Amino acid sequence: MIEQSGLTLEMLHREGLLQKVESPAFPTLMPAALAPHREWTAVSLDYVVQAYNTNLVKKSELPQRWEDLLDAKWKGRLGIERYNAEWLLAVVGQMGGEEKGVALLKEIVRKNGVSVRKGYTLLTKLTASGEVPLALTVYSYMPEQLKKAGQPIDWFFLGGKALARPHAIGVTRRAPHPAAALLFYEFELTEGQKILASHDFVVTSNVIRNPVRELPLDLIDPGEVLDRYKKWDGLYDEIFVSQAR
Amino acid sequence: MAGRETLSAPDFFIRSLGLCSLLLSAIALAVESTPEMARLARYAGADREQVLVRGAKKEGEVTLYAGTQINDMRSSKPSRRSMAYASISGARAGRRY
User: Fold this and answer.
1) Is A133 part of any domain?
2) Residue-averaged pLDDT of chain A
C-alpha cells in the first residue's frame, strides 16, 4: 500500500502498477478526491499557503498580492521549499499566465532574494523560529499545528484562491497481502479521516467539516502537472534554486 | 483480536530504499493484478469488510510506503484498534521525483 502525493500516485498509475479499487466509502468523499481511473484516491488536500512569523511580521503588513513582494521591506525575509513544480505551474496561472507569472517571480527573487529550504516541515519550523519571517510555500496544516501549540506563526494565502494538491493512497496490483492492504485503504477513507482531521489535515471526507475546505480553491491536477513536469521542475530551479541566497 | 505492530520510527525513515526497490522491481515485470487482488478489489458484497478482515488476519501483515501520516494514524486508540488485524511495517518515500 502506498500513501504519497497525488503526483507520485499518478506516476505509478501511468506505469501500470496500481490496482483499480471500488470502495463503498467513495460516496462520502468530495468528488475531486476520486481519480477518474480509480487507481488512487485522495485522503487529504495539501493546501500550499504562505506562513509568517507573527513576532516579525505584523498582520497589517502582509502582502495582499504577489506584486507586493517586490517591496524592499521583504529583502532577505523570504523562504521557499526546495521542490514544488506543481505549485509553480498553478500559481503562475493566478498571476496572469506563464510569461507574466514567471517574470514576476524572477523579479521578486532578483530584488529581495529567497532562502530555499528542503522540506515543508523544516521551512515551517524555521518560520516559527524566526529564521524565515515569511515562507512562500508551506502546507496549511503545519503552521496550524504549531499555532495551536502556541508558537508565533500564522498562515494566509495570496492570489485570491488557495492552491491545493491531493495527497493520495493506492494499492499495487501485486501486493503480497491484498486483503490487509485493501482493509487499510478502507480505514484511511473512513475512520482514518477522523484521525487525520484531528491533526489539522484537510481531509477529503464530506462528513467531516473543515473551514479550510470552504476557501476558494484551485485544485492542482496531478495528471496535468505530470504531462509538463520536466519543464516546470526546470523553471522552478531556474527561478528559485539557482538564485538562492 | 490481539494486534502486533512492528513499525518503529527509525524503521519508518531508514527503510525509504524499500520503496525504490519495490517500484523498480515492479516496473521491470509485467504488472497484472494477482487473482486475489483483482477479486477483492472489485468485491462489493455486503460482507466486504468482514471478507477483508478475515483475509487480513490470515495474511498477518501489510507494508505501507508512506509520507508521514502513519505516525499520526498510529497515535490514537481508534487507529490501534483498527490496525489490529495485521502488523504494519512502513517505509518513508523519498521526495525527489
Assistant:
1) yes
2) 95
pTM for this one?
0.80
Domains of chain B, residue spans: 9-92
Give the closest-approach CA distance of B67 to chain A in angstroms: 6
Instruction: Decide: A69 and A108 in contact? Cβ < 8 Å.
Output: yes
Whether residue A151 lies inside any domain: the answer is yes
A-chain CB neighbours of B52 within 8 Å are 179, 182-183, 186
Is A28 part of any domain? no
- Interface confidence (ipTM) of the complex: 0.79
Query: CB distance B67–A5 less than 8 Å?
Result: yes
Q: Which residue of B has its CA nearest to A83?
A: B96
**In this structure, what CATH number is given to the domain that contains residue A230?**
3.40.190.10
Total domains in the fold of chain A: 1
